[in-house]
Design brief:
The structure is a homodimer of 216-residue chains. Chain A has helices at 5-26, 33-39, 44-50, 54-80, 84-97, 101-106, 109-117, 122-148, 158-179, 182-197, 205-213. The first copy, chain A, has 216 residues and is mostly helical. The first copy, chain A, is elongated and about 60 Å long. The N and C termini of chain A lie far apart (54 Å). Chains A and B meet through helix 7, helix 8, helix 9 and helix 10 of A and helix 7, helix 8, helix 9 and helix 10 of B.
């Protein structure tokens, strides 16, 4: 018999949020499960009740914690936006302008995990891939709406563009992580942002300035 | 007293090439020095004569083996080209069109290393950063020549563009590695390639088709 359902769910989320943090800062392979347990306020026994191994823990971190982040930071704002192309630009500007040295050092938790596990653990790779697919799919659907609204150029393949945006974003974050350089991040994301802004139809260029102007 | 200078140099290069391979396939943190020794044809004693620790080995892999790859694959062709912008496009097309599943799985050795060591070992991070800087610098100098030749649009900041190209390339390789998908690679690199092609000045658009046509 374990703890009651609601408490169990709360504890599980707390452990996952600690584990996300520790893996994010140190990397997955370089982190021991003891480091995660130490960072949590729990005993080994309690911890192993929820996650029998480091791999079980990491899978739950990908499925739940990183998935939730992707949903909150990217997919929800895009899904709720009346001008998804402008919102995508705002999200990229946020990363460009508000990344602290701490953010630069950490990089992206999904890509960190991707590069560590893809070659050595195919089941974990598939879980990472799932979130890349959902992320790219969410951006693509949002851009499709912009296209239907006549805001995004009609000749653009939105799946291709969404893939390019995620690739450009991940590459920019990787370079910034390796160089600890805000300037590198700004250069790479700045070019991506200008590229997206140039894909607005001529009729809608003025609208962009109005709608996003206040947030600049 | 060790082996004579020339033999020592040859053995060292051989060990580095084995280590590059093993780290590339499995990742740095997930690889033990014993795995590298086993993959080489050398005894532990001989191996430790050259590289006293896994970290010493990895530093030499970054400085020499990955450095040499960067030089051969990117910097030399660009430095020797009479049309660097066209050559950059050719290099990206080669990655887009000739990546086997084995390439996709491995990803980029520099970025793999970057994401594993940046957060936990600042000296190794600095060595990785050095090669990103050299790589971006080499592309930027080459693009500067294209600009002086009137081939690349004059309003382009070549450092910014070079940073964006490396970021877009690395992100595309990461996504392909996580998804084992050639299609993802083609989508992300295809967009980057079209972006670069659109930066040729109008006068030189026809020239592009001529010069790179035979290699398509």
């Amino acid at each position: 018999m374990g703890p009651p359902e609601r408490k169990r769910e709360r504890t599980r989320r707390e452990l996952l949020s600690t584990a996300l943090e520790v893996f994010w800062v140190n990397g997955y392979n370089a982190t021991s499960i003891d480091q995660v347990i130490e960072a949590s306020r729990f005993t080994k026994g309690a911890f192993y009740y929820y996650f029998p191994s480091k791999r079980d823990l990491a899978q739950a971190v990908i499925d739940d914690a990183i998935g939730e982040l992707t949903q909150q930071r990217w997919l929800d704002p895009l899904a709720e936006s009346s001008d998804p192309l402008a919102t995508l630009v705002v999200l990229l500007k946020r990363s460009r302008d508000h990344s602290t040295m701490d953010h630069l050092r950490r990089g992206c938790p999904l890509n960190n995990m991707a590069l560590e596990v893809s070659a050595i653990d195919d089941e974990m790779r598939a879980r990472v891939q799932h979130w890349f697919d959902v992320w790219i799919g969410g951006i693509s659907s949002a851009l499709k709406r912009s296209q239907q609204d006549g805001v995004l150029r009609a000749d653009i393949d939105t799946v291709e563009l969404a893939t390019f945006v995620v690739a450009g974003f991940e590459g920019a974050i990787s370079l910034a992580k390796a160089s600890h350089s805000e300037e590198t991040l700004q250069r790479a994301l700045g070019t991506l942002i200008r590229y997206l802004e140039d894909l607005r139809t001529v009729n809608n260029s003025a609208a962009t300035a109005d709608r996003t102007g206040g947030k600049r």
